[in-house]
Amino acid sequence: MIEKVLIANRGEIALRVIRTCKALGIKTVAVYSDEDYNSMHVKQASEAYHIGEAAPAKSYLNQEKILDVMLSAGADAVHPGYGFLSENDDFARLCEKNKITFIGPTADSMNLCGDKMKCKAAMLKAKVPTVPGSPGLVNDAAEAEKIANEIGYPVMLKSVYGGGGRGIRIVNNDKELREGFESVTGESISAVGKSAILVEKFLEKTRHIEYQFARDTHGNTVHIFERECSIQRRNQKLIEQTPSPVVDEEIRARVGEQVCRAADAVGYTNLGTAEFLRADNGEFYFIEINARLQVEHPITEFVSGLDLVKLQLDIANGEPIPFKQNDLKMNGYAIECRINAEDTFLDFAPSTGPVPDVTIPAGPGVRCDTYLYPGCTVSPFYDSLMAKLVTWGQTFEESRTRMLAALNDFYIQGVETSIPLYKTILNSDEYKNGDLSTDFLKRYGMIDKLTDDLKKEKVEKSEAAIAAAIVHSEYFKSRIQKDSTSSYNWMYKLD
Ligand code: ADP
Ligand code: ADP
Ligand code: MG
């Protein structure tokens, strides 16, 4: 039985894992970089160990160093969170070798899932439809061009090693294809040292719909419903919701059955997500498996009533999944907004620095997973996700209006956030009508709508409120001093 878990991550997901461990009486070990010595996950864990410099390669990606800490702290399991080492099969193998339980799939299964081409081949065998495209890797631009002309432009070039929206490119003709082939190859080589490209039909006005699934070491597989993640920027998710407005009972069960077949086909264990694109004609095409706990897992927790981290721990302990597919009932509607530290008007560029003050929303059906606290810092070294604001309602409308109220309550001083954009989106008729697609922001001119909304708001904002904010930030500035021990001139420390 797992008694002590090292969390090889930071930020809100480290806190999320620590919470469930605490509730189950499991000890937790945090690791942290130079940048994170004041971070919430360090404060909340039973023990915390410094593992290196701010740059991820020098700390959160340093497998040997993390292994050292696991062995010396006597951790019997590791939870990788998402990002960082979570989908690194070498790390999973290193843990296996050292008899440390990796809370996730086996190294071999992860390796299969992580390779978009091998995984697609496994899906074809399991009769799970995939996006039409090249049957295997394409060797060069000429071969890609031949396939593109067969399936018809536009096509998408994908590095099989891509992830998080990187290493993919849409091309519309032979000329763009040749340029795109070179740039995707270059990007992939500079990111992971190798490149292998596949060609896919680019599906227009498509929805991103994915399924949570779980598979135990006894071969039991269940799906835990779908999540619609169509509202994206740069092929990265911003807002997710469940149920999807276009998935009814029949579709849920039919595609869900494919998902279970997919999990069986790759010999998966623990929790994972099968991602699909839903074409405008209603067809579902498998795109990939994310072999880890996903950012948007809380919406599934809301509608299923499950603690998914607890389920991960149970499966890692070798226990059978304690329910059957038919025991799961979907209850209500949930929405998640990823609260990013970014400037919508600077092409979503990260906005980092000290956060002197914050107010975290709460209330019935409101959940906020965040590392923020008054006086914390948003680091430029890591992902821009500061908080996940999640609401539940008996109806979609209740969940939506709770989200709007919570977004209004959320106050984050010091950095730009995606909150204003989300208010505009949630108030739009297109969102209310469930008319979603992965190009939602562009299709409906959401950034222009936001500009109009902000103009209106400025007029309404009282001068007293603005003055109060200025006084507050002056007070904070008087309390902070430059951290002379840090080599980073943007780093501040409370006195
Ligand atoms: P997807 O891979 O389908 O886009 P997610 O949105 O959950 O799913 O994750 C996006 C990608 O970025 C993944 O590769 C994930 O591992 C990584 N990632 C997401 N959020 C973070 C984060 N806060 N820190 C580090 N990596 C992250
Ligand atoms: P990643 O590993 O970066 O998450 P995915 O293959 O999951 O890559 O694709 C990420 C996003 O890119 C999808 O959610 C979707 O918006 C878009 N996308 C991927 N493949 C296609 C395609 N064939 N046609 C249209 N859009 C696609
Ligand atoms: Mg994906």
From TrEMBL:
It is an enzyme of class 6 (ligase). Residues 120-317 form the ATP-grasp domain. It holds the Pfam family Biotin_carb_N. GO terms for molecular function: acetyl-CoA carboxylase activity; ATP binding; metal ion binding. The keyword Transcription regulation does not apply. Its cofactor is Co(2+). Its EC number is 6.4.1.2. The keyword ATP-binding applies. SUPFAM superfamilies: Glutathione synthetase ATP-binding domain-like, PreATP-grasp domain, Rudiment single hybrid motif. Keywords: ATP-binding, Ligase, Nucleotide-binding. InterPro entries: ATP-grasp, BC-like_N, Biotin_carboxylation_dom, Biotin_COase_C, CPAse_ATP-bd, PreATP-grasp_dom_sf, Rudment_hybrid_motif. Residues 1-446 form the Biotin carboxylation domain. This is Acetyl-CoA carboxylase biotin carboxylase subunit.
